[in-house]
Amino acid sequence: MDLRGHIALVTGAAHRVGRMLALALARAGVHVAVHYGRSAQAAHETVDAIRRLGVQAQAFQADLRTPEAPAQLFHQVQASLGVPRILVNSAAAFVPGQVRDTTLENWDLHLNLNLRAAFLLTQAFARAVGAGPGKVVNITDWRAQYPGRKYLAYTISKAGLITLTHMAARELAPGIQVNALALGAVLPPPGQSPEYLERLARRTPGGRPIREAEIGDALLFLLRNDAVTGEVLYLDAGAHLVHG
Ligand SMILES: NC(=O)c1ccc[n+]([C@@H]2O[C@H](COP(=O)([O-])OP(=O)(O)OC[C@H]3O[C@@H](n4cnc5c(N)ncnc54)[C@H](OP(=O)(O)O)[C@@H]3O)[C@@H](O)[C@H]2O)c1
């Protein structure tokens, strides 16, 4: 798909990885709906940064944990900017929890935000885009295929996102391609030091964190190449090879 001039909805785009994805789209000539949950100021700064790149941008607030919010968000974007032909599901929670201590609240947070919201947005997207063209990219994690011990609900939500990617790719073909980008260590979780990230990254074959430009390149590849669908692109310096 020629991306220039299309509209993208990026969830969790105010800051960090979501902002990187939104800026990569803007540099490729895509207008961007910048979704945010609580980070209003950061969202408006991202909108300004995107507009400086010569494309349209607008911020949209939604708490994606609630069942009705994803479809409402999609329809607000459609009413303000037009039908998005690109959907990037990046908003997510990442809170530790093991089998013995995961609370219902922890479980619901991950499953509702990381997985159900992505599903409901994909559903609204598929209904609006019809026969296409359209592109969905789900941001997942190398952990989705690794039974680590610390992030039970998060890992299950991201594994579910991969299954959603496969099933939606098959059902929505040939007009809509659905792919996943499984990231390795990009940024330390909020509250953790850069050393935490470096330590994590050193355990991978690549031995280093993933860079912003690499994320942008991978996203644009998945969006531009119409022959790729149902793919999970591991952008993780090989983390899934040693931990998977
Ligand atoms: N950071 C990494 O190294 C890394 C590694 C692997 C995979 N990933 C994946 O990459 C994506 C982004 O990661 P990140 O580290 O940038 O995430 P993050 O810093 O934890 O940010 C979470 C994002 O989700 C949004 N969000 C949280 N709760 C929300 C809610 N209730 N409703 C709507 N939005 C909500 C936040 O928006 P507000 O701040 O506006 O509330 C924020 O933009 C995630 O899918 C993550 O799993 C990241």
User: Would you tell me the structural class of the helices and strands?
Assistant: alpha/beta
Count of DSSP helices?
8
Biggest beta sheet attributes = 7 strands, parallel
Order of helices and strands: EHEHEHEHEHEHHEH
Mean pLDDT: 97
Q: Largest sheet, order of strands side by side?
A: 3-2-1-4-5-6-7
The domain tally reads 1
Residue ranges: pLDDT <50 for 5 or more in a row?
A: none
Shape: globular
Span of the ends, CA to CA: 33 Å
Percentage of β-strand residues: 15-25%
Enter the CATH topology name: Rossmann fold
The percent range for helix content is 40-55%
Query: What is the CATH C level class, in words?
Result: Alpha Beta
CATH superfamily caption = NAD(P)-binding Rossmann-like Domain
